[in-house]
Amino acid sequence: MYFDGSLKLGGGGTVVVFISPKGEQLKYIFQILFNVSNNEAEYEALLHGLRLAISLGIKRLLVYSDSLLIVQQIKKERDINKETMDAYVAEIRKLENKFTGLEIHHVVRDNNIAADILSKLGSDRAEVPPGVFVHELHHPSVKTSDQMIVDSDPTDPSREVMMIDIDRRTPIIDLIREQMLPPDIKANRSEAIQLFCRSKSYVLIHDKLYKRGAGTGILMKCVSTEEGNDILQEIHEGSCANHAASRTLVGKAFRSGFYWLTALANVENLVRRCSGYQYFAKQNHMPAHNHINTPPSWPFACWSLDMIGPLPIAPAGFTHILVAVDKFTKWIEYKPVTKISPDRAVDFICDILH
Questions:
Q1: What is the per-residue DSSP string for 307-327?
Q2: Which of 2, 24, 4 is nearest to 12 (CA)?
Q3: Residue 41 to residue 7: CA distance in whole angstroms
Q4: What is the residue-wise DSSP string for 273-293?
Q5: Average pLDDT for residues 137-164, to the nearest whole number?
Q6: Which of the two residues, 85 and 321, has the higher pLDDT score?
Q7: DSSP state of 148
Q8: Residue-wise pLDDT tens digits, 163-198
Q9: How far apart are the first and last CA of the chain?
Q10: H/E segment holding residue 134
Q11: Pick from 7-21, 169-183, 270-284, 326-340: least confident
Q12: What gap in Å lies between CA 49 and CA 69, rounded to an integer?
């Protein structure tokens, strides 16, 4: 089974391609009609593909995908730091028991061209070729906990706790549209002056807030913190994963035309929790303690070994010279060799000892 997901401005689309041992093919396109990220589209394709395989009575299945992130998360080779991805993986774990043999492997995109082309047809809502089944997905296949955390007793409203994410775009939008300050800020205070100065670099177009670039003046779309985290996640671990430093990731997001105030703080938290980045980060190679030197206290107890070459070929064919110097007496031993090998070095040391 080959699967792939695609996300464009028109929406998302996924595809599942079954190939039997005899070469027979079944192709399914799923048009996603709800908001979804590129990784979530990949998970939707895998989840629906496994359900189709179960309904078709398939017991042994080889699964191939060009998304390295999805494959590594399912194989528990990479941490999952998003609740939606964790819910998808948990649902896939439930379906694994339905198969007597199930393996998932990563392939390069060139070996998954058929699924990639069909997934783009699904996201573009384009006409599909004959022999391809088309389905519409109106809701996600998994459920996650909402931002509202309610106690087990719903009759007591005083025990409800709501997690509210403050949208930092609202004060600037209100100031540009209606010249209205937030209730907790007075017009003659320094906070109001700062807000007025900050709003000069923003533009409101069709109720959408944009920020002018500092050097270029290019408009960048202002997104919420949650949308910004999804963008950073896609840049950091998506199909074009780039495990770079925090400022590099933020610069890439800004150059793509997106902006939010807490971008640097969000990406630092993301990089700090990424196991791959911590593994490939700069490591401290300082020794655990100071070096302990061995002083040359008597003759011929401590030698220094070295090799000189390659040299111009001598009449006897010598190209290198093995050299040993006694640290105490400065006695020099040398031996020209025609070929570099461990045996020649061992013979040179044995000649000195004996």
A1: EE---PPPTT---EEEEEEET
A2: 4
A3: 7
A4: H-HHHHHHSPP----SS----
A5: 52
A6: 321
A7: E
A8: 344 566 777 777 777 777 776 666 667 777 777 787
A9: 69
A10: strand 132-137
A11: 270-284
A12: 18
d(CA 48, CA 139): 13
Beta pairing, strands 208-212 & 202-205: antiparallel
- The structure tokens 């709003």 sit at 199
- Residue 23 Rama label (left phi>0; alpha psi -120 to 50; beta): left
How far apart CA 315 and CA 233 sit, in angstroms, is 66
Separation between Cα atoms, residue 331 and residue 319, nearest integer Å: 23
Q: How far apart are CA 131 and CA 42, in angstroms?
A: 22
Tens of pLDDT, residues 272-315: 777 666 666 666 677 777 776 766 667 777 888 888 888 888 88
Taking Cα atoms as reference points, which of 287, 285, 269 lies closest to residue 277? 269
Residue of 143, 14, 36 lying closest to 88 (CA atoms): 143
C-alpha span between 275 and 318 (Å, rounded): 52
Encode pLDDT of 52-98 as tens digits. 898 888 889 999 988 888 888 888 887 777 777 888 888 888 888 88
* Edge-first strand listing for the sheet containing 60-65: 101-106, 60-65, 2-8, 11-19, 25-32, 132-137
**Tokens, residue 136:** 């519409």
Q: Report the candidate in 134, 116, 31 with the shortest Cα–Cα distance to residue 65.
A: 116
- pTM score: 0.41
In whole angstroms, what is the distance from residue 225 CA to residue 234 CA? 14
Q: Locate tokens 């896609």: which residue?
A: 234
Which residues, including other chains, have CB under 8 Å from residue 84's CB and lie 6 or more apart?
40, 140, 142, 144
Which pair of tokens denotes residue 21?
Answer: 């041992």
Instruction: Find tokens 């593909």 and name the residue.
Output: 49
